Amino acid sequence: QDNSFEQFIINYCNEKLQQIFIELTLKEEQEEYIREGIEWTHIEYFNNAIICDLIENNQTGILAMLDEECLRPGTVTDDTFLEKLNQVCATHQHFESRLSKSSRFLNDTSLPHSCFRIQHYAGKVMYQVEGFVDKNNDLLYRDLSQAMWKANHSLIKALFPEGNPAKINLKRPPTAGSQFKASVATLMKNLQTKNPNYIRCIKPNDKKAAHIFNEALVCHQIRYLGLLENVRVRRAGYAFRQLYEPCLERYKMLCKQTWPHWRGPARAGVEVLFNELGIPEEEFSFGRSKIFIRNPRTLFKLEDLRKQRLEDLATLIEKIYRGWKCRTRFLLMKKCQIVIASWYRRHA
């Protein structure tokens, strides 16, 4: 119920993770259908980029306003920070404050004077401004760092590298908010180069007890996690997509015309393959570079047919090998018999 600077930066990280989830699952998937020329009706979803911008914008973001308050001369307090937020973010649709110039919130008695509220993707969260400035400064006096660096204990010395007299930096150390923002940016850059898998955990109740499911709580989490939009996109879209070349390479043994070698474009080979297998036209679509399969059952059917075909091919290879081995042994025995008979006749 009481949220301060720590919870604020944690929720900021959650917003960034939700943003990359949206981009990689909802936005990217729908854009892929358009790029591939697949007929598609756009499904609306909430993009939380506007909330991320409210927090991290370099000019008008909350973190930028907090750093500006921490670095400016004069009397700086948590209240002056809140006043600045009221001036800069007053008209933002996801920011609420009791002192905001927006008359919509002047009569909101549930919001104390020393707090502001952000409407996150997961719901509204109220933050106490008390301690924001001090926690963001996170200052460690230089002489304390130097004293720790001179300690004989190697671990303590390693924890305070900034105390090394040879590396004295007269610049003001970065604030906690800017350090966290840089760390989140590095994390997002790293995630975008990977192929992440998402595991969404649903909290069934607030009592941390087994076999209790609070339906309202579960439905609330499903809504704000964006799972409903994700399910709509998945149900309306295609469960599986693959480039034509690897698709043909994997399933070409299921058709006599494409096995063992297909001479021609990979897309034409996939068309011949699917027509030969009698897969209904509504179960797949041809994109510019990929084949799209709508129902997982179709993919499972292909995999089952491939598994059976591989077993048949293994049996065929085994049969040919055994035949070759027996014939080779027979020819060797026949040759030996002829040699023995010729020597016997010579000496008979």
TrEMBL record:
Any one GO cellular component localisation term in the record: myosin complex
GO terms of molecular function: actin filament binding; ATP binding; calmodulin binding; microfilament motor activity
The protein's name in its UniProt record: MYO1B protein
Stored PROSITE patterns: MYOSIN_MOTOR
Residue ranges of the region described as Actin-binding: 184-206
Organism listed in the record: Rhadina sibilatrix
Pfam families: Myosin_head (PF00063)
Entries under Gene3D superfamilies matching the protein: 1.20.5.4820, 1.20.58.530, Kinesin motor domain (3.40.850.10)
Gene Ontology BP annotations: actin filament organization; actin filament-based movement; endocytosis
Keywords, sorted A to Z: Actin-binding, ATP-binding, Calmodulin-binding, Motor protein, Myosin, Nucleotide-binding, Repeat
Family: Belongs to the TRAFAC class myosin-kinesin ATPase superfamily. Myosin family.
SMART domains: MYSc
Domain Myosin motor, residue spans: 1-307
